[in-house]
Specification:
87 residues, mainly alpha, 77% helix
Length: 87
């Protein structure tokens, strides 16, 4: 990629495809993306929107359940970054 903008566009394109074909089983995997440093806040917002879109499309109750199970991974990751000074 030539610049960060291209990376974000590619990331959003991948999330768009996942939102259209993915099942609730991908929600925990999407949550682990938060473990990586997200340089652009809009990318994090788009990731959250994708998670909720997948849940709504496939069975909201099941999707929210899988999201709830995955939140501790995200919180642990944020705590690690704050402790180590990386966010």
């Amino acid at each position: 990629m030539e610049n960060e903008g291209d990376d974000i566009e590619e990331f959003e394109s991948i999330l768009n495809e996942l939102s259209l074909v993915g099942t609730n089983d991908i929600i925990p995997n999407l949550c682990t993306i938060f473990e990586e440093e997200v340089a652009e806040p809009s990318a994090g917002d788009y990731l959250i929107e994708t998670i909720f879109y997948v849940a709504k499309r496939n069975n909201l109750e099941d999707g929210l359940y899988k999201l709830a199970l995955s939140i501790p991974k995200m919180l642990h990751s944020f705590g690690q970054k704050e402790f180590t000074g990386h966010f």
